[in-house]
Amino acid sequence: MADFCLKTERLVLRGWRDEDVPAFHAICSDPTVMATLGAPLSYEQTEALVARMQGLQADVGHCFWAMERREDARLIGWCGIIRGSVGPVVDQPEAGWRMAADCWGKGYTSEAARASIDWAFANLPDPAVYAITSDGNQRSRAVMERMGMTRLAEGDFDHPKVDPASPLLRHVTYSVTREDWDSRTA
What we know:
Strand content: 25-35%
Structural class: alpha+beta
Low-confidence stretches: none
Oligomer: single chain
Mean pLDDT: 95
CATH topology: Aminopeptidase
Strand order of the largest sheet: 1-2-3-4-5
CATH class: Alpha Beta
């Protein structure tokens, strides 16, 4: 499969390259970035995560893609669509993102999430796109709401991969239907 590339006004969402690992590790090992996601990752964990995304791209044609800023080609995070693996999003299209802290507050995540959801509805047959985050992750919840996603009251769950004693255990689920997305963008 050809290397994936989705361009927005300021960003490029693309397939992962092995040389992306050091820049992505700088993001995944930053305690500020990881405060609402879990413990900072080791280099080996980041490398495995990138390899997992490469595998998903090769196997199913989509993943949380490398997110590059167009103005300087800097890798600033990831955003895209995977098949969910936990809670109410198992086997559903799940939008997700992670970004370098110095890039927060500039609208990049919303821009990338919008493009990813557009891509999902244009390329996947599913009737909705979902997103999950820890209950206290207000930044991600705000992005979900900007995308027109609504919180699913029945979608709250304890994440099975999070330590039961962690304040990140409780997760919330948001979704947007194809019909609602189309009516927003029409």
